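queue> pop job 88
queue> type: inverse folding (structure -> sequence)
queue> payload:
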C-alpha cells in the first residue's frame, strides 16, 4: 500500500485537493493522511480544519506555526518556526509520497524542512508565474525540492522542465480544482444564500482581494482603491458586493480593515465571507454577475462558470489566462470602467485553458505507478 501525505495549509488548497481526496478515499492502493497547518489551525481565519473533518477524514496530523502579525518580519519568523516544527514532524512520520500544492509561504516552509530528510514531494501547480507576489519564489522552491510534478498546462510543464533541467515525472493533468466540473452538482443558490445570510434574488459581484506581497509598502493605497471601487459598485451599479476575506499574507489586515469599514457603512449591500468552502464558493461564482480582485481562482476557474473577471494589479501578473479576463492596474476609474464593460457582456462563452478531463484520476494513476 502506498503511504500518501497531503499537505494542506488553507481553505484554498484544500478546496483544490477535494476531487483527488474523494477518489483516494475509495482507492485501496493508498493509505492517506492529511497534514493540516497554516490558517487551517487559526481561529482568526475561520479555523478551517472543519472543512477537512466535514469530509469524514479522521487521519489528520497537525503542525502549528502561524505568524503573530502580518508584517514581513512576522511572516519570516513564522517561516522559520514552521521549518523547525516540520523538521521534527518529518523525522517521525514517513510517507512514500507527500503532495504539496501551490505557492504559499507555509507550503514552502513545510517542503524546505523535508529536503535534508529526502522526503519525496509531488508538486501540484508548478511552473506558473505570478510576478506581483513573493509566491513566485516559493513556488519555484517547491518545484526544485519535488520529485514529481502535476502541472495545469503544457506551458507550465515546459517551465518546470527549464527549472529542473530534466525530463522525468512532469505531467500535464490540467487544474485539479476543475476536475468533474461539467457534471458537478452545486448546492442550490437559495440554500447557499440562506446559510450565509445573503439576499437570494439580488445581483452581486464576487470580490476577492489579497495584498501584493512584492510591493508591500503600497498595500494601504491598494486597499483604499479596492474599497472605493466596491463601495461605488454597491451604490451606483445596483449590485450587491460579496467579499471573500484575504488570506494570511503581509498586510492582509489592511485589506480586512478597509472591507470591514465599507461593510459597516453599507451593511445592506456589502457582505463579508470568511470561508465559503469550495461548493458554496463555486455556487457563488456561478450566480455572480462578474468577479473582481486579484485571486488565482478567478483566472483558473471563472471561465468554467462562463464568468468574466476583472483582474486588478500585479499579483497575478504573468499567469496564463483565458479570454474572460480583464487586466487593470490599481486605479479606481480604470477598474470601474473594466467592471462596466464586463457587466455589459453578460456570460463568457469561450474555453478555459486550465481544464482537462479526469485530472484527479490521472494524478492517482501516476502516483500508483511511480517507482518507490
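queue> result:
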Amino acid at each position: 500500500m502506498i503511504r500518501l501525505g497531503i499537505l494542506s495549509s488553507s481553505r484554498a488548497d484544500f478546496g483544490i485537493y477535494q476531487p483527488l481526496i474523494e477518489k483516494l478515499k475509495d482507492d485501496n492502493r493508498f493509505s492517506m493522511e492529511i497534514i493540516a497547518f497554516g490558517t487551517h489551525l487559526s481561529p482568526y481565519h475561520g479555523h478551517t480544519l472543519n472543512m477537512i473533518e466535514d469530509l469524514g477524514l479522521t487521519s489528520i496530523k497537525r503542525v502549528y506555526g502561524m505568524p503573530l502579525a502580518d508584517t514581513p518580519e512576522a511572516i519570516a519568523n513564522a517561516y522559520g518556526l514552521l521549518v523547525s516544527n516540520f523538521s521534527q514532524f518529518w523525522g517521525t512520520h514517513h510517507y512514500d509520497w507527500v503532495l504539496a500544492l501551490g505557492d504559499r509561504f507555509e507550503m514552502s516552509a513545510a517542503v524546505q524542512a523535508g529536503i535534508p530528510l529526502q522526503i519525496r514531494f509531488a508538486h501540484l501547480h508548478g511552473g506558473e508565474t505570478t510576478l506581483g507576489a513573493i509566491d513566485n519564489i516559493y513556488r519555484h522552491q517547491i518545484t526544485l525540492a519535488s520529485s514529481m510534478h502535476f502541472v495545469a498546462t503544457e506551458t507550465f510543464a515546459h517551465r518546470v522542465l527549464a527549472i529542473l533541467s530534466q525530463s522525468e515525472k512532469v505531467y500535464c493533468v490540467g487544474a485539479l480544482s476543475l476536475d468533474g466540473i461539467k457534471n458537478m452538482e452545486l448546492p442550490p443558490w437559495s440554500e447557499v444564500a440562506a446559510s450565509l445570510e445573503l439576499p437570494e434574488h439580488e445581483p452581486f459581484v464576487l470580490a476577492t482581494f489579497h495584498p501584493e506581497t512584492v510591493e508591500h509598502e503600497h498595500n494601504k493605497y491598494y486597499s483604499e482603491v479596492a474599497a472605493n471601487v466596491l463601495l461605488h459598485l454597491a451604490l451606483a451599479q445596483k449590485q450587491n458586493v460579496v467579499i471573500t476575506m484575504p488570506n494570511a499574507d503581509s498586510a492582509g489586515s489592511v485589506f480586512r480593515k478597509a472591507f470591514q469599514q465599507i461593510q459597516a457603512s453599507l451593511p445592506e449591500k456589502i457582505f463579508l465571507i470568511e470561508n465559503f468552502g469550495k461548493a458554496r464558493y463555486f455556487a457563488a461564482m456561478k450566480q455572480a454577475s462578474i468577479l473582481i480582485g486579484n485571486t488565482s481562482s478567478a483566472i483558473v476557474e471563472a471561465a468554467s462558470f462562463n464568468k468574466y473577471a476583472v483582474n486588478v494589479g500585479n499579483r497575478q501578473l504573468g499567469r496564463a489566462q483565458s479570454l474572460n479576463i480583464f487586466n487593470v492596474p490599481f486605479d479606481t476609474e480604470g477598474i470601474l470602467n473594466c467592471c462596466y464593460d464586463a457587466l455589459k457582456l453578460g456570460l463568457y462563452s469561450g474555453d478555459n485553458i486550465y481544464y482537462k478531463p479526469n485530472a484527479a484520476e490521472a494524478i492517482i494513476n501516476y502516483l500508483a505507478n511511480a517507482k518507490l
